[in-house]
Write a structure and sequence with these properties.
Order of helices and strands: EEHEEEHHHH
GO molecular function, one term: oxidoreductase activity, acting on the aldehyde or oxo group of donors
Protein name: 2Fe-2S iron-sulfur cluster binding domain-containing protein
Shape: globular
Organism: Nonomuraea zeae
Low-confidence stretches: none
Structural class: alpha+beta
Distance between the termini: 44 Å
Strand content: 5-15%
Pathway: Alkaloid degradation; nicotine degradation
Mean pLDDT: 95
CATH superfamily of the largest domain: [2Fe-2S]-binding domain
Keywords: 2Fe-2S, Iron, Iron-sulfur, Metal-binding, Oxidoreductase
Number of domains: 2
CATH architecture of the largest domain: Orthogonal Bundle
Length: 162
């Protein structure tokens, strides 16, 4: 099947198998290796990208299902040589160790910052809560870090949220 999508602001028309995941399309066909294949079951978040501005596990999304969508990977967060504020904050706060989960953490955080509304830990569901460390931890709970850099990840995200 031929599909057309925009990846990091660049339009692409790609011939793909209808069973191919978005993750495999990004890595194997477009050469974008930022999104990682961790568990390949949507449980770790290493493959998180933004699809039309919303976070998604690219290992679970079929490439044909994102036809016509705008996909942003970690490679597309920066503006040329200017790092995205989250990327700069991750460096400043040492919010990574091995770095394998970092692209997914960054894309998830970028999407999370634009998501309004309460989470499971919000006291008053009628309010749009401040992004406290507890809120950030809850909203980022789909992204796992085997190295345990969570404290620094939360503080980097909190700095950008302020």
């Amino acid at each position: 099947m031929e599909i057309t999508l925009q990846v990091n602001g660049v339009p692409h028309t790609v011939d793909t198998d209808p069973r191919m995941s978005l993750l495999d399309l990004l890595r194997e066909r477009l050469g974008l290796a930022g999104a990682k294949k961790g568990c390949d079951h949507g449980q770790c978040g290493a493959c998180t990208v933004l699809i039309d501005g919303r976070r998604a596990n690219s290992c679970l999304a079929l490439a044909v299902a994102v036809e016509g969508s705008a996909v942003t990977t970690v490679e597309g967060l920066a503006d040329g040589d200017e790092l995205h504020p989250l990327q700069a904050a991750f460096i400043e706060h040492d919010a990574f160790q091995c770095g394998y989960c970092t692209p997914g953490q960054l894309c998830s955080a970028a999407g999370m910052l634009g998501e309004p509304g309460p989470s499971a830990v919000t006291d008053d569901i009628l309010l749009d809560p401040d992004l406290t460390p507890e809120e950030i931890r809850e909203r980022m709970s789909g992204n796992l870090c085997r190295c345990g850099a969570y404290v620094n990840i939360v503080s980097a995200i909190a700095e950008v949220a302020r």
